[in-house]
Specification:
The protein is α+β, with helices and mostly antiparallel strands and about 90 residues long. It has helices at about 50-60, 70-80, 85; strands at about 20, 30-35, 35-40, 40. Helix 1 (about 50-60) packs across helix 2.
Length: about 90
């Protein structure tokens, strides 16, 4: 099974559509989470580095053995592989 990640912030999307954002027609977006995409619009406009800084504390809380520097390094490698990163929205 391939794990799905939000193509904006990289959060794991889980095994259900609970984390999916919503498109303009209220359908679920399989690409973006509910925190990044709502009613067909991105909820935040920021650079990749700004998004990483927003996500670092959450990553450290979710992974208590991880330092902020480790989380930051991992995201700097991972985020450019996401579809939004490829489109240079960040």
């Amino acid at each position: 099974m391939n794990e799905k990640f939000c193509q904006c912030c990289g959060i794991p999307m889980g095994n259900s559509d609970e984390m999916y954002g919503s498109s303009a027609d209220s359908s679920k977006s399989e690409d973006y989470c509910k925190y990044c995409f709502e009613n067909g619009t991105f909820t935040i406009d920021c650079t990749m580095d700004e998004m990483i800084e927003i996500c670092v504390p959450h990553m450290v809380i979710a992974n208590s053995a991880m330092t902020e520097d480790e989380a930051r390094k991992m995201m700097k490698e991972f985020f450019p592989t996401l579809s939004v990163g490829k489109l240079h929205r960040f």
